[in-house]
């Protein structure tokens, strides 16, 4: 929703966007239940237009979510916190939902 | 409160401050009820000494708040998320309350 | 936990880390109760390997926590919000838990 607002405002292709899911948020990538299925479909569409979706391996482990069960468009990184810090040092702005 | 602490610490005029209200937070600009009325008065005072208050149009729409009903000191932007990202690229620090 | 994940990922000594406790979070520095005692011990260990722990004086005051009651490894700053902004202007990435 936020990302759609952002893309509508700046225009597609005018910004690099990465969504890093940390902690409990990684469960958003599980397409169980109707609500989550719709969410995953929305993310799939955003992934197709260039938005990166990243999951924290520590968080997946803590929630017993197998890497293999994630949608194909999700990249797994060892630690979400490092990814967030690294992206900021690369010039990305940070927005905490 | 946070902003007052900040201004007391760095001194007025020594920092540019912008408060971007996104999502449910835009309702803070509605001066209905006693609590909110006091909050709006505090913001009014901060606006007078140079603090910018910004509301996300998407959020206003989602909560059926008319732009015209907002206090005069509030600026409306199409998408709060873009505003937050843009300010960071301009060198603003980001603080999520 | 997050900090441990971060250090495991980037390696100790490869990043400067500062934890700024603001608002209610300053109570984490009080080692009353078993849970908090364990937390303070974890922080103590992180402090020994170079992580800075900072508490906001405004927040301490608001919660009637005496500066003297804090663990030795905690630094008190007048306003946490200024510290967070300053660190970002110094090049620190910001991560809101």
UniProtKB/TrEMBL annotation, chains A, B, C:
This is DsrE/DsrF-like family protein. InterPro entries: DsrEFH-like, Sulphur_relay_DsrE/F-like. SUPFAM superfamilies: DsrEFH-like. Transmembrane segments: none annotated.
């Amino acid at each position: 929703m936020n990302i759609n607002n952002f893309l509508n405002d700046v225009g597609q292709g005018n910004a690099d966007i990465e969504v890093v899911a940390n902690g409990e948020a990684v469960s958003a990538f599980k397409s169980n239940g109707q609500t989550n299925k719709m969410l995953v479909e929305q993310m799939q569409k955003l992934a197709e237009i260039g938005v990166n979706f990243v999951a924290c391996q520590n968080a997946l482990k803590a929630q017993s979510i197998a890497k293999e069960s994630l949608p194909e468009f999700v990249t797994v990184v060892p630690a979400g916190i490092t990814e967030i810090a690294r992206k900021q040092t690369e010039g990305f702005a940070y927005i905490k939902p």
